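Key result, reporting period 2: structure in, sequence out.
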């Protein structure tokens, strides 16, 4: 890269190439009205972009203070650039570049909670949005309750003034707000957990109840936890993404974010005070987000998780490589159409089969380099809403679950093969990776014993689902294939068995 290229910052805005859009509003007039926790690629491609759209349309005091309580540090990238960054929209050979201006300040709070508390307690902050990943909520995936044995929760309950966890940080902020100005606050989760507002409310309330002093009652009266469905595929940014901005546009940017053209945001209209009018720029405010959330998590995210673990087992690098594989493409479409779609609630304005095709088309975008290992990360926190809940609904409908069970076994096989006993085939990151590795190391290669021991992890598998004979048999059979020398046999067998069941059903209905 050239040594002379300038770094993006306010002084460069007037001199950027015409192909790079810049903020149309006066950033110097922006005042911080909301904070965001977890300034990763997704936030920069989603909430910050919607806010930038809104500021162009109707200027208000909705500048964002971006806070990270986990790595990476923001000071050296976004901080150096006064919050400015380039958002690239990419689809195959199409590229659209825009500098986003809605982030007014960034705060690193990885070492201590104090910098984050300074922002969250401020009376200027009326809204806190967050993308802290599924595991950031410290809840038990199968029940949605606060995990009181989580090491960070244990720490924070003992040291509430110096919290490390998201629930601990939010409760401390609310406690200080109650004790000082008492102004209400909306806490808006933008993570892919089911009923994310309900889960956020659960963990905050459970923690606050343990703090006493009427805090839980104050929260019930002054804090709102709307649920939201968020959508845009925006993988972790790579050095190649950073370099591409310099190659194409001639300036350096250490905080580039890359996303696909599609975006969606559906938010429950349950606010404690003023809210940015994101509904004027494409977001939808609704009474109940559940039908939208099921559609997105079960179809798009369900397909991503399936392609991720099966893709790794098939030796494929990215989502777009996995969905280009004819066998996996056939499998994923049949799984979604036959088993997932019948579990969905009617969604206003969206036809499920059209949504399936649109989702598969999005996953084929070769310019979005979403690594299968990235999507497979924290699978234990994802499979409940993406695979297990639809399986449970299917079973209660008396429908088949043979296809949806294959990616459940896929998640198991992915973690099992990261164990010593299976030769540590790849590094993994998942809160349950240690537990599964321990099971694999003591159990060895017996698929039935492995599946039984993993299905007994009740933080992930609801015991009544884990006891279901049809589900167990399907998972055991798929796991046996996935751990063999021919892992894709699981996919072929799943499809064959589905075909047999389909013929049987059509014969029966002809009688
Ligand atoms: C992905 C999501 O990594 C993952 O778990 O499935 O980040 C996905 O790309 C987004 O939910 C799309 O909106």
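The corresponding designed sequence is given below.
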């Amino acid at each position: 890269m050239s040594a002379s290229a300038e770094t993006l910052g306010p002084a460069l805005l007037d001199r950027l190439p015409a192909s790079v859009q810049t903020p149309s509003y006066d950033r110097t007039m922006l005042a911080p009205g909301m904070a965001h926790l977890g300034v990763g690629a997704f936030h920069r491609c989603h909430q910050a972009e919607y806010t930038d759209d809104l500021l162009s349309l109707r200027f208000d005091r909705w500048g964002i203070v971006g806070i990270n309580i986990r790595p990476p540090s923001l000071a050296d990238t976004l901080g150096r650039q006064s919050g400015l960054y380039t958002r690239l929209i990419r689809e195959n050979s199409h590229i659209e570049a825009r500098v986003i201006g809605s982030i007014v300040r960034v705060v690193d709070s990885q070492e201590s909670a104090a910098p984050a508390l300074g922002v969250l307690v401020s009376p200027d902050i009326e809204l806190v949005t967050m993308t802290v990943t599924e595991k950031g909520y410290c809840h038990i995936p199968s029940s949605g309750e606060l995990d009181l044995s989580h090491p960070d929760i244990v720490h924070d309950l003992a040291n509430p003034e110096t919290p490390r966890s998201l629930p601990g940080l939010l409760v401390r902020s609310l406690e200080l707000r109650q004790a000082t100005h008492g102004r209400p606050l909306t806490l808006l989760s933008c993570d892919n957990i089911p009923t994310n507002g309900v889960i956020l409310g659960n963990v905050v309330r459970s923690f606050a109840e343990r703090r006493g002093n009427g805090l839980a009652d104050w929260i019930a009266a002054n804090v709102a936890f709307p649920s939201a469905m968020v959508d845009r595929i925006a993988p972790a940014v790579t050095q190649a993404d950073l370099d591409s901005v310099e190659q194409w546009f001639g300036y350096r940017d250490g905080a580039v974010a890359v996303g696909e053209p599609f975006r969606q945001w559906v938010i429950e209209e349950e606010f404690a005070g003023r809210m940015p009018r994101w509904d004027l720029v494409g977001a939808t405010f609704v009474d109940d987000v559940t039908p939208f959330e099921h559609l997105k998590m079960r179809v798009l995210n369900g397909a991503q998780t399936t392609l991720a673990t099966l893709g790794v087992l098939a030796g494929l690098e990215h989502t777009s490589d996995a969905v280009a594989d004819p066998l996996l493409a056939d499998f994923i479409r049949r799984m979604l159409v036959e088993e997932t779609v019948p579990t969905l609630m009617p969604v206003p304005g969206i036809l499920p089969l059209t949504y399936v095709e649109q989702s598969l088309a999005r996953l084929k975008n070769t310019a979005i380099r979403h690594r299968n290992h990235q999507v497979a990360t924290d699978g234990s926190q994802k499979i409940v809403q993406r695979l297990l809940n639809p399986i449970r609904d299917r079973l209660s409908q008396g429908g088949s679950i043979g296809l949806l069970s294959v990616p459940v076994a896929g998640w198991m096989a992915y973690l099992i093969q990261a164990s010593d006993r299976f030769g540590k085939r790849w590094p993994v990151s998942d809160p349950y990776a240690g537990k599964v590795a321990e099971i694999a190391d003591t159990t060895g290669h017996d698929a039935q014993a492995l599946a039984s021991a993993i299905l007994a992890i009740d933080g992930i598998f609801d015991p009544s689902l884990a006891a279901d004979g049809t589900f167990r048999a399907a998972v055991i059979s798929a796991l046996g294939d996935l751990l063999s020398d021919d892992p894709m046999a699981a996919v072929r067998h799943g499809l064959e068995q589905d075909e047999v069941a389909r013929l049987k059903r059509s014969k029966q209905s002809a009688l």
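The pocket of D-mannonic acid is lined by residues 192, 231-233, 301, 304, 374-375, 382 (CB under 6 Å). The chain has a mean pLDDT of 97. This case is discussed further under Risks and Mitigation.
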